[in-house]
Design brief:
This protein has one helix and 13 strands. By secondary structure, the chain is mainly beta. It starts with a helix and ends in a 7-residue tail after the last strand.
């Protein structure tokens, strides 16, 4: 005879399944399938599962580095420094809650430090010596080096689809191979860089986040 605790667990599981079926049947998730401007998300690198991450630790200014705030890959899924807000590009005027179209430009604002995902020619990443990816602010700064092109399939970026980010100014892709790991002061974090070619190492997908419902849905 199943114990009381086993029965309770089974009943809880059945309730979860029932509620999920009700939500799906009534379309309560309608409008949340597309990624929208104004949403705050974590991006997971498909190959390594590292989250795109930043923090108040700068690159060195010698050896080809810019001295700007560093960007890395974080293996933990719970770190709040991995949240990025989707913002229109420096020339964009998309409304909050509008779907991000494939092929359009955007900026990614690091939630905690208020700096934008950035890249630039002439500076190299510290470990692989590819093009450096940094975070640059302040929030009201207008720098075309913060603009990224969303490459995805279909007409809009969907939450469950894979996506690549092509740097608008240099045509390099947001890239990570899981081969380069930092030591102190960011022990164990992974190098994120920009790479001149589109490869599977440039594939990302959304994970945790605060998603805004698409306008009109």
């Amino acid at each position: 005879t199943p114990s009381l605790s086993m029965v309770e667990k089974m009943m809880s599981l059945l309730m979860v399944l029932l509620l999920t079926a009700i939500v799906n049947a009534n379309g309560f998730d309608k409008g949340f399938n597309a990624v929208t401007f104004g949403s705050t998300i974590k991006l997971e690198h498909v190959q390594s599962t590292a989250r795109l991450h930043s923090h108040e630790v700068n690159y060195g200014a010698s050896g080809g580095g810019s001295g700007q705030q560093s960007v890395s890959g974080m293996m933990s899924s719970t770190d709040t420094n991995s949240y990025w807000k989707i913002i229109p590009s420096t020339s964009g005027d998309e409304m909050p809650r509008s779907a991000v179209k494939c092929g359009s430009k955007l900026r990614l604002l690091h939630l905690n430090t208020k700096k934008y995902l950035h890249s630039h020619r002439g500076f190299v990443s510290p470990l692989s010596h590819n093009q450096e990816v940094s975070a640059l602010g302040p929030e009201d700064n207008v720098d075309p080096g913060d603009d990224w092109i969303v490459e995805c399939t279909g007409s809009v970026w969907m939450k469950d689809s894979l996506v690549k980010f092509k740097h608008d100014s240099t045509n390099y892709y947001l890239h990570h191979t899981n081969k380069h790991t930092f030591g102190r002061p960011i022990q164990g974090q992974k190098e994120i860089c920009a790479f001149p070619h589109s490869t599977d190492f440039g594939m990302w997908k959304t994970q945790e986040g605060y998603f805004l419902r698409e306008i009109g849905q």
